[in-house]
């Protein structure tokens, strides 16, 4: 049985971080069959975090962000050719160039793309950007280096905040428009959002919260010159970056019968994809940003993550399970970890801050810009976020993994807990934000209406 699984044909759709790590792991696990990796971009897998940081600052070029390979996965790379469909009965992946790739097992790692500006004509103006791909980053870095008079960033999530930070570091004037009450509020809740807002303004960002951009304006010759806001004000700018979160790349699976929708492709803890009726498949797997999976630490809610570390860990579990029989398969139970660097702050998160009802500052203080905030849900620790205190995070990760009680007791805090009363975590409804959370709790709702098939009596 094991030998059979280590032969045959495996196709990975997504020449991404998850796709690369899965390909490497398959070979490390003894897979000797044919391996094909499909990617819609023309480039080999590259690293995305530098695109909103070092590349925008001009410290590295976008074309130097290729991911190092741990080993040669001995794969056929089909780059620059998107997958357009999946035939699960015939076990074939359909490609945009008309080719069909037969498979015995398939890994879907198609990730996400930047959510575009909803008005196509306005989004096509010269000077309007999104930031997701290597080409996006290279184009935006070139515009920033040219010294625009002002940059407008739409969306105050992690990507929007990092872009604003890079602009200020370059000495550029920047306005951030956020529909919600503050930057990062969807990911970190209200208390840390107040600190983030203070850091934006303290570094000279024109931060406007509780407003939406109603229109992007051109100059008549197709160049972006400014925007109108819902409060009646306007912003004059040369560059606009639309940072409205991500869209999962699942459209090519529309006729596949898999449980794929706007929230991603549902899979079990072993990375096996579900079909639309909740039946697990045994030859289709999912990993990375496109997937959503149940996690026992978070009441088996389906988690949808946009984290570097999750893509790596999930890809390795998926690859292991693709070439091992049932009793040897492993679950993907990694606790989410995420980090961001902006405005001189190092923000690191473990767990799911949005899965919380209360928070408490266990170490440091907001005033010192150095702290550890612990999140709880129904009396149990579910997350922690550190600001310029990253070394504390391992300790809190252990508390999350062991379902420790909230608020944390002595030893988990540098102050008497009686002096620090837990306050509501103040995580808003994502519908009221212009930036999406990097961790989404998607629940069990299907993404489309199903025809319930009744058994014949």
UniProtKB/TrEMBL annotation:
Its cofactor is FAD. Residues 9-315 form the FAD/NAD(P)-binding domain. Keywords: FAD, Flavoprotein, Oxidoreductase. Pfam families: Pyr_redox_2 (PF07992), Reductase_C (PF14759). InterPro entries: FAD-oxidoreductase/Apoptosis, FAD/NAD-bd_sf, FAD/NAD-binding_dom, FAD/NAD-linked_Rdtase_dimer_sf, Reductase_C. Residues 338-408 form the Reductase C-terminal domain. PANTHER family: APOPTOSIS-INDUCING FACTOR 1, RIESKE DOMAIN-CONTAINING PROTEIN-RELATED. This is FAD-dependent oxidoreductase. It comes from Streptomyces gibsoniae.
